[in-house]
Specification:
With about 425 residues, the protein is α+β, with helices and mostly antiparallel strands. Strands 1, 4, 5, 6, 7, 8, 9, 10, 11, 12 and 13 form an eleven-stranded mixed beta sheet that branches. α3 runs antiparallel to α10 and α3 runs antiparallel to α13. It is built from 14 helices and 13 strands. About 0% of the residues have low confidence. A hairpin with a 5-residue loop joins β2 and β3.
Length: about 425
C-alpha cells in the first residue's frame, strides 16, 4: 500500500518535444495563399468594384486608344497609298550644263506607254508633257481683241490616251480622247474644270472649240480634279499626235503610270531597262516604296500620341489600385496582427496582398481589354471603317493589368509585412 502511494506521488516528467517534420498537408502552400487573397476580394464587393473601376478604365483606354490609333492610321495610310503609293513617274535623266541649266541627256521613246503596260503591276500609263506656248494665244474666241484686258491663258499639256485614268480624273461631261485621236493627230482637247470656267465653256453639246495659236480644237470633254496631278485642273490637254504636228513637240516630257500597291520597287528597275535597255541610267524612275512613306510617318506619329495618352490613363488606374490596397492594409491591421500571432510569416502576409493586387489587376485587365476591343469595333462599324487591332495588344492589355496590380500592391504588401503582432493587436 505504501509502495502504491509513493508511486502515485512520483513527480510527472515533461514529455519531450515532437521534432518530427511537419506534414506536407499542414504547410501553407501557394494554393492556400491564393485562397486567402481571393476570399478577401469576394468578401468586399464594393471595394472590389471601386478597385476594378480604375484598372478597367486604364486598360480599356490603353487598348481602345491603341486600337483607334491603328485604325485611324490605317485609314490615313490607305488614303496616302491610294494616291501616292500607286503613282510612278519616268523622266529622262538630266545633266547640268554651262550656266547652271539642266539639260536632258536622253529622251523617252514615243512607244513608252506600250512598253510600260506590258509589265506586271502597271494598271495604266500615259505620256504627258507641258507645251510651251511661246507667245501663242489660247482662247475660246477666234478674234483677238487688242482692246480687251490681257488674261493669262491656261497651261497647255500634250498627253496620250488614258491620261485621265492614269492621273485619277473623271469626266464631268463629254468623253476623253482615245488612241485613234492620237494616231490621227485630231485637233481635239480636254479641259480641266477651272480652265473650262476661265474659258467660259461649261457644256459640250454645242460643239464648242478653243483656239490655240489660231488653230481650232474641238472640246470633247471636261474633267474634274485629278488625284495625282492637281495642276491639270487649270489646263488644256491635247493628244500628243496633235502637239507633234501643230507645235513641233520633239519628245515626251515624262511618263505617268498608275501601279499596284507594292509594285514600285520591282517596276523601278524593270521600266528603266524596258525604255532604255542599253543605258538604263538615262531614265529616272520615281516609284514609291512598298507603302507610302508619308503614310507610314503619319501612322507612327498617330500611334505615339495615342500611346502617350493611354499611358497617362493607365498610371491613374495603377494609382487607384495602390490607394485601395493601402486602404485595405490600414483597415485590416487587426487581422494582420492576429495572423502574425498565429504563426504567419512576413512573407506570407506580403504574398497575400501581392497576390490580391495581381488578381484584381488581372481581372480588371481582362474586363478592360474586352471593353477596349468592343469600343474599337463599335466605333469602326459606325464610321464604316475597317477595325484594325493587333491581337497582341488585347492579350497584352489583360496581362498588363496583372503587372500594374503587382507594381501597385508592392508597397502596401511591404507595409503589411512590417506590422508587428503586439502593436497590431493592441491597436485593434
Amino acid at each position: 500500500m505504501i509502495r502504491r502511494l509513493r508511486r502515485r506521488r512520483r513527480p510527472e516528467t515533461t514529455p519531450a518535444p515532437d521534432l518530427r517534420p511537419v506534414d506536407a498537408a499542414d504547410r501553407f502552400r501557394f494554393s492556400d495563399l491564393v485562397g486567402e487573397a481571393t476570399a478577401d476580394i469576394g468578401a468586399r464587393p464594393a471595394r472590389l468594384l471601386m478597385t476594378l473601376a480604375g484598372t478597367v478604365l486604364g486598360i480599356a483606354a490603353l487598348v481602345a486608344t491603341i486600337g483607334f490609333g491603328q485604325t485611324a492610321a490605317s485609314q490615313i495610310a490607305a488614303q496616302f497609298d491610294a494616291a501616292a503609293a500607286t503613282r510612278l513617274t519616268v523622266t529622262p535623266a538630266t545633266a547640268q550644263a554651262r550656266g547652271g541649266t539642266e539639260v536632258a541627256t536622253a529622251s523617252l521613246p514615243w512607244d513608252t506607254v506600250g512598253r510600260m503596260e506590258r509589265l506586271a503591276g502597271v494598271r495604266a500609263a500615259a505620256l504627258i508633257g507641258e507645251v510651251d506656248l511661246e507667245g501663242r494665244t489660247l482662247t475660246s474666241v477666234p478674234v483677238n481683241d487688242p482692246s480687251a484686258a490681257a488674261v493669262a491663258p491656261p497651261r497647255l499639256f500634250a498627253a496620250s490616251a488614258d491620261i485621265l485614268d492614269t492621273v485619277g480624273a473623271e469626266t464631268v461631261t463629254g468623253r476623253p480622247f482615245d488612241a485613234g485621236h492620237d494616231a490621227r493627230a485630231d485637233r481635239v482637247a480636254l479641259l480641266g474644270e477651272r480652265a473650262a470656267e476661265r474659258l467660259g465653256i461649261n457644256r459640250i453639246d454645242t460643239q464648242p472649240s478653243i483656239f490655240i495659236d489660231g488653230l481650232a480644237y474641238a472640246v470633247i470633254g471636261i474633267y474634274g480634279t485629278p488625284s495625282t496631278r492637281g495642276e491639270l485642273t487649270d489646263a488644256v490637254v491635247v493628244p500628243t499626235g496633235s502637239a507633234r504636228a501643230d507645235f513641233s513637240a520633239a519628245a515626251p516630257g515624262e511618263a505617268q503610270a498608275r501601279i499596284d500597291i507594292g509594285a514600285g520597287p520591282q517596276l523601278r528597275a524593270q521600266i528603266a531597262l524596258a525604255l532604255a535597255p542599253d543605258a538604263p541610267d538615262t531614265m529616272e524612275v520615281a516609284a514609291p516604296s512598298g507603302r507610302s512613306d508619308l503614310g507610314a510617318q503619319v501612322q507612327a506619329d498617330v500611334n505615339v500620341v495615342f500611346v502617350l495618352l493611354s499611358v497617362v490613363v493607365l498610371l491613374a488606374g495603377g494609382l487607384g489600385i495602390a490607394n485601395v490596397t493601402m486602404l485595405s492594409v490600414m483597415e485590416r491591421v487587426g487581422e494582420i496582427g492576429l495572423r502574425r500571432a498565429l504563426g504567419a510569416t512576413r512573407q506570407q502576409i506580403a504574398g497575400q496582398f501581392v497576390v490580391e493586387s495581381i488578381v484584381v489587376g488581372l481581372l480588371g485587365g481582362l474586363i478592360g481589354a474586352s471593353v477596349g476591343v468592343l469600343a474599337v469595333v463599335v466605333v469602326s462599324l459606325t464610321q464604316q471603317w475597317t477595325p484594325v487591332l493587333d491581337p497582341v495588344v488585347a492579350v497584352g492589355g489583360a496581362l498588363l493589368g496583372a503587372v500594374v496590380g503587382l507594381g501597385a500592391g508592392g508597397v502596401p504588401a511591404l507595409r503589411a509585412s512590417r506590422i508587428e503582432p503586439i502593436v497590431a493587436l493592441r491597436g485593434a
